[in-house]
Amino acid sequence: MHYNDPQLLEELGNGNEQAFRQLFVTYYSPLCEFASQYVSDGAAEEVVQELMMYLWERREFLAIVGSVKSYLFTAVRNRCLNAIHRNRYKEVTHSYIYEKLKDSFQNPDGYMLEELSRNIEKAIGELPETYREVFSMSRFGNCSNKEIADQLNVSVKTVEYRITQALKILRIKLKDYLYLLSAWL
């Protein structure tokens, strides 16, 4: 049976699958073609399928005034515009995130370096006081072993021993980062 618009809406509201089938067969292809003017073919089919699902699921509550055809084409256009808006929002968001994080993406060791920095500070802080003092003067104070020995009133051999011991302890504590530390230790 072929339904006119008012009958189609009434039968659809009553859950008549034949009325829905007529609506689907009559409008699916033209709506997909219309939607493809706004979005890609795959997205156009998805928009039309979602609209058809919406119509079936909400059939009891539909309040379409006027032409079913006008309603469907307007609904498809609006859904396509919404899809375009969502895609643009995603693109802008992805661009913003990329710009903020691109240095980290380009330097995958950036995350490791931050973690390494925290772990180095912690490991140095856990060194015995005498080792930490000599190590810090040597690596961060740019003092020679002789200058350190003179400042601390110890022998140069004691300074060398403390630096050696500090490095051994740090190598053990920072073994997971040795490839990054090879030049520093």
Fill in the keyword field for this structure.
Rna Polymerase Sigma Factor, Chain: A, 185 residues, mainly alpha, single chain, 2 domains
Layout of helices and strands:
Layout: H1 5-13, H2 17-35, H3 41-57, H4 68-106, H5 109-125, H6 129-139, H7 145-152, H8 156-173, H9 178-181
Helix pairs in contact: 1-2, 2-3, 2-4, 3-4, 6-8, 7-8
Brief account:
This protein is mostly helical and 185 residues long. It has helices at residues 5-13, 17-35, 41-57, 68-106, 109-125, 129-139, 145-152, 156-173, 178-181. It is built from nine helices and no strands.
Describe the structure.
- The chain has 185 residues and is mainly α.
- The chain folds into 2 domains: 101 residues, Rna Polymerase Sigma Factor, Chain: A (Orthogonal Bundle), CATH 1.10.1740; 73 residues, Orthogonal Bundle (Arc Repressor Mutant, subunit A), CATH 1.10.10.
- 77% of the residues lie in helices and 0% in strands.
- It contains 9 helices and no strands.
- The termini are far apart.
- The model has no long low-confidence stretch (mean pLDDT 82).
